[in-house]
Write a structure and sequence with these properties.
The structure is a homodimer of 116-residue chains. Chain A is mainly beta and 116 residues long. Chain A is 4% helix and 57% strand. In chain A, strands 2, 3, 4, 5, 6, 7, 8 and 9 form an eight-stranded antiparallel β-sheet that branches. Strand 1 of chain A pairs antiparallel with strand 8 of chain B.
Chain lengths: 116, 116
C-alpha cells in the first residue's frame, strides 16, 4: 500500500449496522486493502444514540461536534481534537450532542470482519 | 482496559527519537497498557522536517495546522480533520507547514517496540 490521505468530503457514508439511528460510517481503508487496520469517518446526527459491545479495539478522534460515551464505569464527554479509546469488549452507549458529531476512527482488527 | 478519553492538554510531549527537530510525540496508550495499538498526539514546530522509514502502520489525524508527506510517489498535503495513512515500510519526508501542526496518531503495532 501507499501513503494516502483522506478527507470527510471523500467519504461514502453508510448506516452503521445493527441500528436504525442517523449514525453512519465510511471506511476509507479496510480488509479489502490488505493492511491490519480499518480507517474511516463516522457521522452522528443530533442526539442520536448507539448501544454496542465493541467487537474490536476502536479509537475515535472527534473532528466536529461532540459525543458522550457511557459504560458501567461512568460517562465521558469528548469534543473536537479529543480521542476516545474503546477497547475490545467494552459495552458502551454513545450519545451524540445536540450538534451531532463527526469522527475519524481506526480499528484493529477490521470491525466489519469482527461484526460479520 | 477501560474506555478512556485523551486531550492534547493531558499530553506529556517528548522529542521524537532519531532526530533533533522540534517534533514531539506523546503516547497516551502504548505497550505498557496491554492493548494492540499505540495512541497519542504529535506536535510539529513551524517548518520542521522529519525523514523516516515507517516501522509500523501509522495513521495520523491532523488536528491543527498542516503538513505534507512526500514519498517516491509524490507529495500530499493535509490539514485539520484530514487523515494520513502511512503503511509499514513507507519512506517518507514529513514537512510541517509554517504554522506547525498538531496530530493524533494510532499505530499498529506499537511504534516504540518496532523502533527499539
Amino acid at each position: 500500500m501507499k501513503v494516502q490521505k483522506f478527507a470527510v468530503s471523500d467519504a461514502a457514508f453508510e448506516r452503521s449496522p445493527g441500528q436504525d439511528a442517523d449514525i453512519f460510517a465510511a471506511n476509507m481503508i479496510d480488509q479489502r486493502h490488505g493492511g491490519p487496520v480499518t480507517i474511516g469517518f463516522g457521522r452522528y446526527g443530533p442526539d442520536q444514540v448507539l448501544e454496542a459491545e465493541i467487537a474490536v479495539h476502536d479509537t475515535m478522534v472527534i473532528l466536529e461536534g461532540g459525543l458522550s460515551v457511557s459504560t458501567e464505569d461512568g460517562t465521558l464527554t469528548a469534543g473536537p481534537g479529543e480521542i476516545v479509546y474503546m477497547p475490545k469488549g467494552a459495552k458502551v452507549t454513545i450519545r451524540a450532542q445536540a450538534k451531532g458529531a463527526v469522527t475519524a476512527y481506526v480499528t484493529y482488527p477490521h470491525w466489519q470482519e469482527a461484526e460479520g
